[in-house]
Specification:
- The complex is a heterodimer of chains A (275) and B (354).
- Chain A is mainly alpha-helical.
- Chain A has one domain: Orthogonal Bundle (MetI-like fold), CATH 1.10.3720.
- Helices cover 78% and strands 0% of the residues of chain A.
- Chain A contains 13 helices and no strands.
- The longest helix of chain A has 36 residues.
- With 354 residues, chain B is of the alpha+beta class.
- Chain B has 2 domains: 229 residues, P-loop containing nucleotide triphosphate hydrolases (Rossmann fold); 105 residues, OB fold (Dihydrolipoamide Acetyltransferase, E2P), CATH 2.40.50.140.
- In chain B, the strands form 4 sheets. Chain B has a 6-stranded mixed sheet, sandwiched between helices. Chain B has a 5-stranded antiparallel sheet with strand order 13-12-11-14-19. Chain B has a 4-stranded antiparallel sheet with strand order 2-1-4-5, covered by helices on one side.
- In chain B, helix 2 packs across helix 3, helix 2 runs parallel beside helix 4 and helix 3 packs across helix 4.
- Classes of the chains: A mainly alpha (275), B alpha+beta (354).
- At the A-B interface, helix 8 and helix 9 of A face strand 6 and helix 2 of B.
C-alpha cells in the first residue's frame, strides 16, 4: 500500500513539474502584458503590483493588429471549413469504396504531410505568383491546406474504417439513401473525429509563421504571427505590445480547447487505439 | 407478406464469380435457411436480395415486383445483422423507431408499433437505454424488434446468432422460430451452423463455392444428401465416408466389405464413395468389426471413434458405460442407411427408391 502511495506522489510531482515548466511562460506572457512599462523589465513578482491595459489599447488603436487578427480569422476559418469538407469526402470514399490505388493515395497524403513546410512553401510561392495569387489570403489558405488536408484525410480515414459498415447498411435497409445514411448515422458518430480534425486544422493555420512569412509581403494581408513579429524592429522592441499580442493569439486556442477537449481526447483515443 | 423469387441470379467481382446461377422460389411465410461454409456465397446472396450488393445477372422478385434494380430502402425488407448494427448514438426506442420515422408514419402509429414489438420481445424495460448498456442477447432482440416494427415483406437474417454464447444461441433460436410462427412473414436466414438450419428451417438451401448443392426440407436433406459435400456438412457427428468400388453385392473399401443389400444394382468395379451416419450403425449384429479407440460420453448416447479394418470411423450408440479403448464391437449398417455417391462427380447414386 505505502509503496503505491509513494509512486502516486512521485508521479504527481513529475506531472506538476511538467505543468509548471510548460505553463509558466504562458503565465509570464499574460502577466507581462498587463505590467506597466516602468516595471515590465524590472519587477520579478508573480503578481504585478500595478495593472495596465495600455499595451492592449496601443495594439488595437495604433497598429494594424485588428486587421491582422481579422486576416488570421479568415485564413484559419477558411482552412478549417475547406479541410472539413474535402477531408470528410476523400476519407469516406477511401474508407468505403473500392478505389484503385487507395492505399497509395493515403500514403502519398501522409508523405506530403511529413514534408518540411519550407520545401513546399517556396515552389508554392513561385506557383502562386505565376497564376496571379501572390501575396493573397487565398494563397495562404491553399498553402495551409497542404498540411491540414493530409492530416484530416488520414485521421478520418482511420475513423471511418472503424465504424462498422453494417450500421450504414442497416440505415439503408431502414429507408435511408446512401447519403442519408451518411448524414444521419455516420456523421453523428464521427463527431469526436470531426472535432479533432477541426481543432488540429485551426491550430496549424492559426499559429503558422513559415508559410505566412513567405506567401505574404504586404502589411494589409499579414496574419497575426507575422504581424506581431514585424513589431520586433532592430532599434525598438516593444515587449509590452508583443506580450499583449501574443496573449490575444493564445486566447482563442484556450477557448477552443476548454470547450472541445472532451471530444478532442475521445477522437485522439479512437484514432490511436484502433487506427 | 410475399413470395420471393430469384431467377438465374449471378454475382461477379471482376472475373471472379461468387454466386452461380441461383434459382429459388420462396413461398409466402416460408422459413428458408441458406447454409454453407464461410465464403460459399450465402451472405452475398442474402445481400443481393436486400439490395446491398449489385446483382451481376438475373432477377430478384419480391411479391409481384421486380426489385432487381431497386435501392434497399424501396424493397420493403428488414434485415438483422450478425453484429446487430444498432445505432450506437440512439436509444433503443429510437433505434426501433428510426425506420418508421423515415417512412413518415404518424407519431401515435410509431409509438404503438414500437410498444407492440417491445412487448413481444420483452424489451419494455430497455427502451430508454443506449445499445452499449445492453447484453448481446438483448441487442439481438432489439435488432429483431427494429426489423419487426416495419412490417416488412420479408425478414433477412445474416448469421444473427453467431456472436452469442452457446446457451443464449439455443434460446434465441427458439425465440426466432416462435416469432416466425406468430407473425408468419417469410424469413431468409443465413448460417454456417447446420444445427440452426436443421432446427429452424422449412427448407434448407445448401451452398458451396457459390453453387447451390441441394434444396430441401431438413430431414429430406439429412436422409438423402444430394452429394458428398451435403452428406458431410449435414449431421453431427459427421457422416463416415470412404472411397472404394463395387465388388459383387458389396461395397469394397480396402479390406472392408459393406453389403449393398437391396441397393441399386451397380456394375462390378465401379468407383464409388460410400457413407453411413455414426448414429445409424447397429451394434451387436453383422460381420463388421469396430475397434474402439476413444469413447466420448454425451449423456444419452455414447460416441466412439476407432477403426474397422484399419479405416477410421465414428459410431454413435445408446449409452454404454462399459466401453473402453481396445474393445471390439461387431456392427452392421441397416438397409437403406447406406449412402452411395459417384466417386468422380460426388453426386448421389440413388436409382432404386427414387
Amino acid at each position: 500500500m505505502p509503496k503505491s502511495t509513494v509512486k502516486k506522489f512521485l508521479l504527481s510531482l513529475v506531472g506538476l513539474a511538467i505543468v509548471v515548466y510548460s505553463a509558466f511562460p504562458i503565465y509570464w506572457m499574460v502577466v507581462s502584458s498587463v505590467r506597466p512599462p516602468e516595471s515590465l523589465l524590472s519587477e520579478v513578482s508573480l503578481i504585478p503590483s500595478v495593472f495596465t491595459l495600455e499595451y492592449y489599447r496601443n495594439l488595437l488603436e495604433l497598429t494594424d493588429y485588428p486587421k491582422h487578427f481579422a486576416n488570421s480569422v479568415i485564413v484559419a476559418g477558411s482552412t478549417v471549413v475547406i479541410t472539413m469538407i474535402l477531408a470528410v469526402m476523400i476519407a469516406y470514399a477511401v474508407a468505403r469504396y473500392r478505389v484503385r490505388g487507395k492505399k497509395a493515395i493515403v500514403v502519398a497524403m501522409l508523405y506530403a504531410y511529413m514534408f518540411p513546410p519550407l520545401l513546399v512553401a517556396i515552389p508554392l510561392y513561385a506557383l502562386f505568383i505565376k497564376i496571379g495569387l501572390g501575396d493573397s489570403l487565398i494563397s495562404l489558405v491553399a498553402a495551409h491546406l497542404t498540411l491540414t488536408l493530409p492530416l484530416g484525410v488520414w485521421f478520418l480515414w482511420g475513423f471511418f474504417r472503424n465504424l462498422p459498415f453494417q450500421i450504414e447498411e442497416a440505415a439503408m435497409v431502414d429507408g435511408c439513401t446512401r447519403l442519408g445514411a451518411f448524414i444521419r448515422v455516420v456523421l453523428p458518430l464521427s463527431v469526436p473525429g470531426l472535432i479533432t480534425v477541426a481543432v488540429f486544422s485551426f491550430l496549424l493555420s492559426w499559429t503558422d509563421y513559415t508559410f505566412a512569412v513567405i506567401m505574404i509581403s504586404s502589411d494589409v494581408n499579414k496574419t497575426i504571427p507575422v504581424g506581431l513579429a514585424s513589431m520586433i524592429g532592430s532599434f525598438d522592441l516593444r515587449w509590452g505590445e508583443v506580450m499583449a499580442g501574443s496573449t490575444l493569439i493564445a486566447a482563442p486556442l484556450l477557448i477552443v480547447f476548454t470547450f472541445l477537449s472532451k471530444y478532442f481526447i475521445q477522437g485522439l483515443g479512437a484514432g490511436a487505439v484502433k487506427g | 407478406m410475399a413470395e420471393i423469387e430469384l431467377r438465374s441470379v449471378v454475382k461477379k467481382y471482376g472475373a471472379l464469380t461468387v454466386v452461380h446461377d441461383f434459382n429459388l422460389k420462396i413461398e409466402d411465410g416460408e422459413f428458408v435457411v441458406f447454409l454453407g461454409p464461410s465464403g460459399c456465397g450465402k451472405s452475398t446472396t442474402l445481400r443481393m436480395i436486400a439490395g446491398l450488393e449489385d446483382i451481376s445477372g438475373g432477377t430478384v422478385r419480391i411479391g409481384n415486383r421486380d426489385v432487381t434494380h431497386l435501392e434497399p430502402k424501396d424493397r420493403n425488407i428488414a434485415m438483422v445483422f450478425q453484429n446487430y448494427a444498432l445505432y450506437p448514438h440512439k436509444t433503443i426506442y429510437e433505434n426501433m423507431a428510426f425506420g418508421l420515422r423515415l417512412a413518415k408514419l404518424p407519431k401515435q402509429e410509431i409509438e404503438k408499433r414500437v410498444a407492440e414489438a417491445a412487448k413481444m420481445l420483452d424489451l419494455q424495460e430497455l427502451l430508454g437505454r443506449k445499445p452499449k448498456q445492453l447484453s448481446g442477447g438483448q441487442m439481438q432482440r432489439v435488432a429483431l424488434g427494429r426489423a419487426l416494427v416495419r412490417n416488412p415483406d420479408v425478414f433477412l437474417l445474416d448469421e444473427p446468432l453467431s456472436n452469442l454464447d452457446a446457451k443464449l444461441r439455443v434460446r434465441m433460436r427458439e425465440e426466432i422460430a416462435a416469432l416466425h410462427q406468430r407473425i408468419g412473414t417469410s424469413m431468409i436466414y443465413v448460417t454456417h451452423d447446420q444445427v440452426e438450419a436443421m432446427t429452424m428451417a422449412d427448407r434448407i438451401v445448401i451452398m458451396k463455392g457459390g453453387v447451390v448443392q441441394q434444396v430441401g426440407a431438413p430431414l429430406r436433406v439429412y436422409d438423402k444428401p444430394a452429394n458428398v459435400f451435403v452428406a458431410s456438412f449435414i449431421g453431427s457427428p459427421e457422416m463416415n465416408l470412404f472411397e472404394g468400388r463395387v465388388g459383387g453385392s458389396d461395397a469394397v473399401v480396402q479390406e472392408m466389405r459393406i453389403p449393398l443389400g437391396r441397393n441399386p444394382r451397380l456394375t462390378d468395379g465401379v468407383e464409388i464413395t460410400v457413407g453411413f451416419r455414426p448414429e445409424h450403425v447397429q451394434v451387436g449384429e453383422g460381420d463388421l468389426k469396430f475397434t474402439v479407440n476413444l469413447v466420448e460420453q454425451l449423456g444419452v448416447q455414447t460416441l466412439c471413434s476407432g477403426t474397422c479394418n484399419g479405416l477410421f470411423m465414428r459410431i454413435m450408440i445408446e449409452r454404454r458405460d462399459d466401453l473402453k479403448k481396445g474393445d471390439v464391437l461387431s456392427f452392421a449398417i441397416p438397409e437403406g442407411k447406406l449412402h452411395l455417391f459417384d466417386k468422380s462427380t460426388g453426386s448421389r447414386i440413388d436409382q432404386a427408391d427414387k
